[in-house]
Amino acid sequence: MRTIGQHRDEVAALLAPVLAPRAPEVLTLDDLADGAGAGRGYRMLARAVTAPVPLPVFDNSQMDGFAVRSTEAGQVVRVVDPIPAGAVPVPLAPGTAAPIMTGARIPDGADAVVPVEASPPGAFPAALGLDVLTVPDGTTAGTFVRRVGSDVALGAELAPVGAPVTPALLGALASAGVGAVSVLRPVRVLVVSTGSELIDGGQQDDDGSDAAGAVIRDANGVALRAALAEVGAVVRRVQLSDAAEAFLPGLVSAVGDWADLVLTTGGISAGAYEVVRQVLEPRGLAVTPVAMQPGGPQALGLVELAGRRVPVVAFPGNPVSALVSFEVFLRPVLAAAVGAPDRPTAELPAAESASSPVGKHQVRRGRVADGRVHFVGGPSSHLLGHLAAATHLVHVPLGTDSVEPGNPLTVWSLR
């Protein structure tokens, strides 16, 4: 069997051409703020963006206060009409001070702002009634003034190629009047759930009752779609039966010229109806078991589909196995490509004992309380409710057959 590290390296090598810079597309700032085209995931600039205007675009007040001349520090000046934000002020005459609001344009002739707190009333609107103001000693040019271009100079680079489109960058682009930018197209992933027993999650009989019979609701399609969206992928999902004669045409049709990557669940183990293995092995899929529990059955390869070679990553069908496989093998590769953060990792003592197969790296579910790791549920791959209740993945390394209280364990935070 492969080790986890060996298989993760193989996944990264398989996906490297897919994750190389992709064709750009132009999206508006509103589209990007809404996560258009990539769920709630990450987008990256395909072209550098330069500032078409300086930021700020004009000298403006950093405080609610009075626009003054610094050369008149220590003098009593007359208070004139106020300057609200958004107004174009008249020049400030010598011997005067103008009440000014935060963000309002500094009038010609003024070069400093006296905070309203320094006036006798100490606040607006009461301070609007002042007839005169004493400009404080020590007032210097630039005091509480946001200068033109002090944030970003005209023509300066707002963001380089490959920069992640963060909320702060969107704000800077909006401030500079940039309405749309060129971003890299996200990776397009086709999630394929296999099994003739599957029905769509939430599906009910016509009478409104839960669907009866030997059927299983497709948890993998929904869960993996959400997991992929968190790292910037665009996802389509499809359910295909275990019938080989129907599986391949259905897969080819779904792949078309759209999918960059196919992610399958189920059909790669040692059963009699392992359709992914039976149909795709002759086309380039390599079944590569990994010394991991859950998630031992794994497969990957460049597979001939829809007239081209498409990267395929195949996970086991049990839902915990599929999600753990995603966290261990696929998420790190996709996250690194779009600048998404790694799972926070820590080494903490076990709160209780547990057993583990000595020849496998066991990934348990757990919670952290009082600085110790508590296991949530057992190691079985069908315990999806326990995974949903867990906050951490707990790693019991290869070669360990038992865990005792106090033994150090590596944990990945899921929340």
Instruction: Kindly provide the name of the CATH class of the largest domain.
Output: Alpha Beta
Q: Mind telling me which CATH architecture of the largest domain this is?
A: 3-Layer(aba) Sandwich
Please list the strands of the largest sheet in the order they lie side by side. 15-12-16-20-19-17
CATH superfamily of the largest domain: MoaB/Mog-like domain
In short:
With 415 residues, the protein is of the alpha+beta class. The chain has helices at 4-19, 29-33, 167-175, 219-229, 244-255, 275-280, 319-338, 384-389, and strands spanning 24-28, 49-50, 60-61, 65-68, 76-79, 96-100, 112-115, 132-134, 145-146, 157-159, 180-184, 188-194, 198-200, 216-218, 234-240, 261-265, 286-287, 292-293, 299-305, 308-315, 345-349, 354-355, 361-369, 372-375, 392-396, 402-403, 408-413. The protein has 4 domains: 33-54 and 152-184, Molybdopterin biosynthesis moea protein, domain 2; 60-146, Molybdopterin biosynthesis moeA protein, domain 3, CATH 2.170.190.11; 188-338, Molybdenum Cofactor Biosythetic Enzyme, Chain A (3-Layer(aba) Sandwich); 345-413, MoeA, C-terminal, domain IV (Beta-clip), CATH 2.40.340.10.
